[in-house]
Each structure stands twice: as C-alpha cells, then as structure tokens.
Amino acid sequence: MTRLADTHCHLYMKGLSHRLDEVFRNASGAGVERYMLVSSDEQSSFEVVSMLGRFSEKGVYGAVGVHPHDSKSVAEGLPEELTDLAGNERVLAVGETGLDYYYDHSPRDIQKKVFSMHIGFAREAGKPLIIHARDSYNDVLSLLEKEKAHECGGVIHCFSGTTADAARALKLGFYISFAGPVTYPRNGGLRKAAAVIPEDRILCETDSPFLAPQPVRGSTNEPAMVRHVYEAVAAARGVPLEELAPKIWRNASDLFGWPD
Length: 260
Prior knowledge:
Elements: E1 4-9, H1 20-29, E2 32-38, H2 42-54, E3 60-64, H3 80-85, E4 91-100, H4 108-125, E5 129-134, H5 137-146, E6 154-156, H6 163-171, E7 175-178, H7 188-196, E8 202-204, H8 226-237, H9 241-256
Parallel strand pairs: 1-2, 2-3, 3-4, 4-5, 5-6, 6-7, 7-8
Helix pairs in contact: 4-5, 7-8, 8-9
C-alpha cells in the first residue's frame, strides 16, 4: 500500500487520546506511516513531547507552540519551558501559531505580538513554522514577510486562502497543506488551488480530530482519514494517488527533516 504522511494532527485531544491503539491501527491500515503531532498551547506541548517518547516506533514527530486562540496566555513572552521542549530531537517544528480573526479568542494586537515571537523562536531554533490562518491571510503573510520567516520556512496548514495568498506564501519558500475542507462540495476554489500548487510544495493533513473529510463528515476525524484528502488533491491535479503520495512524502521529509 502507498505510504502516507499526516502532516498535522492533534492526537492528544478528546475523541482520540483515549483510544490511541485503535487510532494507530486504523491509520496503519490506511497506509499512514508518519505523523506530525501539533501543539496548541503550553500544556499540549508537554503532552506532545510525552507522546513522542511513547510512540516513537509509530513514526510520530511533533511541534511545540501556542495557537492564536491562546495568545493572551503568553502575551508577556513565550515560556522558557517551551523553548526547552523544542530541543527534543523529535520536535521538528514550531506551532501551531498564526492569526485567527474568525473567533478572535485573543485580541488581534496580542495575536500579532505572539505570532512574531513564534517566528523569532523558529528562526533561532532553526525549525520550520506551522501556520494557522483564518480570515487573516493578509496580516499573516505580511508578518511572515516582515519578520523574515523565509529564513526558517514552514507550512500554511489547512489552507483556506486564495491562489494569490498561496503565491505569496510560496514566494517565502513555504509549503501549502490541504485538509478535509478540500473534499467539501462547496470548496471548488480550494480544489482549483490544489491543482496549481507546485508539486514540490504541497502537503496533506487531517487536522484531526477536526474537519473530517466529506465521505466521513460528521465523525471524529483521525489520521486514517487523510487518505480522502490525498484522493481529493490527486483528483484535482488529474493524477493517481500512487503518483501524488510519494511526492508529498518527499515534501514532508524535506520540510520537517524527518528520516525518509
């Protein structure tokens, strides 16, 4: 079976954490052999690093950081513990970080301040960024440009922007990752974007437990379901899954530096 990578998942969250043996078994059955576990706050960063030790044989790697929803909790500076966690050999990225203007759980000025902190953190650590952008693409991309994020690179996860947004990110050397929404009937624009992203800059993910793909929509998302995302992107590009998947595997390896 063609091997797949889920480049963004939250296995420590409710709906998945209590049945990890089943989650990994399902994923293996779908061909998933590599996982990027992404943190959302300081506590989950510790949980992710703990899981990296417990499930290293599963092909699990991680990222540490604070989601824009929780920016106000670190407005005075990123905790020293977070930078310590980034030293773990299986922590390969910083995130997720970025700006979310849809929910505005943290004030926008604080979101921007903390996002800039993360960019500096990633540049200093020499690790790529995992970016969350919702209703905020112009500000996200402007900050990435201003703060010289091309020096560390990264990925715009669960991409929901325009082809123009993608072009700005690509110019910075960033990757573009698609999740469950690319499978939704109303999201033809996302499929058009997926069709034109350069093949060496495209990734696929679940963002599980959120955003289950269309064939299983309404259920708890999990890494096994990333196959639906790959299939949708492959169809948009007019290529078979077996041709697309090895390229995405290589892209993920190039971005995160995990063993090929």
